[in-house]
Amino acid sequence: MDIEIPEDLREKMTRPRSFERFGTLENLLRTFRPGERLVLYCLTVALAASTLALLVGVNSAVSVIVPAAGGSLTEGIVGPPRFINPILAISQADEDLTQLVYSGLTRALPDGSVVPSMASNYEISKDGTTYTFTIRPDATFHDGTPVKASDVLFTVQAAQNPDIKSPRRADWEGVTVSSPDEQTVIFKLPHAYAPFLENTTLGILPKHLWSSVSSEEFPFNPLNTHPVGSGPYRVSSFKTDGTGAAESFTLTAFKQFPPRAPHLQKITFLFYPNEKALIKAMNAGEVDSMTNISPAGLASLKRTDSVIMHVPLPRVFGVFFNQGHSPALRDASVRAALSAAVDKNTLVEEILKGYGAVLNGPIPPGVLLNQSSAPNSSTANVAKDAYSEKARGILSRGGWIFDEKAKVWKKNKQTLSIALATADAPELSATANAIAEFWRASGVVVDVHIYPISEFNTNVIRPRSYDAVFFGEVVGRTLDLFAFWHSSQRNDPGLNLAMYANAKADSLLAQARATTDRRAREKLYGTFAAAVDKDQPAIFLYSPEFIYVVPKALEGIKLGALITPSERFLNVADWYTETEHVWDFFTEPI
């Protein structure tokens, strides 16, 4: 069908287009003098710049900077991993990779709270003995297999198996685990135990890969170095040397990790034989970050693009007295004098290079809700000889007489002489020798015995064969002091190194571990700490700090009260190096 176009419309359609208005503008510009044209051009540029600035300002007003997916981190560690396995991990390398590769029913946060992870929720019975967990429907392992209740049962039962010899076995003694269906896990405790919830952060093993492995073969299975977990990162590649020891592991973000995948897309671990080699690699730019470095080692750090992060560790280092082994230590004045003679601030400054906190009791910093982190002002800025003078005064009032000729303290034909034992770790031996000098300045005869760590545990700690021992206690985030101070723990394998026995203290410790209300539990521990302060079974010296060297470009790190160095990764999903602008209608700002 033909359509006839009118003549006048056809003429307009075929007429060449003209730019009469632009031509008019051009003619007008020709009438401007050069100076007027320059002014017009400047005004035009200013108008364009103002418009652009206005648009940028409007965009900034309605947008925020948020973390973006991307970036990587290369971290150096001393020693290679052997067991990337939540129930076998022993070394720092083991624990670091296990923390990233595996996840449990719950996960701890830097603020000390415990929240659901592979579980969507949980319930605790009123009597505190039954914990019921519901597994989230989107929980999956790195190979795509769903996480089920049977995986949790398998993991806990493997940890409980004495033939596997798991370091986590003590956490699960007496606990019964069952599952009415594949989404529900029930733990039954023999009695209420407030810190139990933290045990459920144990990484979950995939039963479909491990169930055919015998107890004897468990430590030797390739899955220990080719792990499959459900954590925020999965192993994508690794390299070994000629002996089969790991040289590096590369981990990539697990996209299905709930509630979202990590921002940082890749973390590579490189392993070094010792601290000196690690610091050399850091200075050479081979690695971006390193941890567990001694305060003395930081003096060799030359990187200017790094930040040194440090937070208190919930650890208590002190001198623990064995009054049954040394008659002199049964005298309260002796214990008080030995405590008064020690300049704790000097120990922190000279041994820890300032990376530590002075302690005056059995509770480390960072674990109580309202605990002050301020330094101990009672011993700050005190003259060096004031400590020895105070100690001498305490001994004199306690009936001890200083023999100027023999240079010893005596009382009832008894000479004040102490043997101080510790292990051969650099900071332990340095501190023990410094303590001995403080005591000698007060006229106390002191012998320092330093043992290899294996001999120290076997021949000194376990048989309680010492007058006084300088050592450290790793106190958990939930502050369970039962193993360190209850009278039932005086003998091996208990950890009551001071051989402390006090009926009131025992009662307080038993009540505290069964009290689920955190404030009520901390009140009980406060009363307990007062009892210990009165009895003086130990000298509490310091709590060291965790040191982590990271690149300045790495953001989002939050370090709370860490139990182990691997817990620096508690909020690893929030770490980032890349950012983007997003309108705040769609997201929350950083």
Automatic annotation (TrEMBL):
- Protein name listed in UniProt: Solute-binding protein family 5 domain-containing protein
GO CC, sorted alphabetically, is:
ATP-binding cassette (ABC) transporter complex; periplasmic space
The entry's family comment says:
Belongs to the bacterial solute-binding protein 5 family.
Q: Which GO terms describe its biological process?
A: peptide transport
Pfam families per UniProt: SBP_bac_5 (PF00496)
- Which species is this UniProt entry from? Candidatus Kaiserbacteria bacterium RIFCSPHIGHO2_12_FULL_53_13
Q: Which InterPro entries match?
A: Peptide/Ni-bd, SBP_5, SBP_5_dom
* SUPFAM superfamilies per record: Periplasmic binding protein-like II (SSF53850)
Transmembrane portions of the chain: 38-58
The record, for PANTHER family, names: OLIGOPEPTIDE-BINDING PROTEIN APPA, PERIPLASMIC BINDING COMPONENT OF ABC TRANSPORTER
Keywords for this protein: Membrane, Signal, Transmembrane, Transmembrane helix, Transport
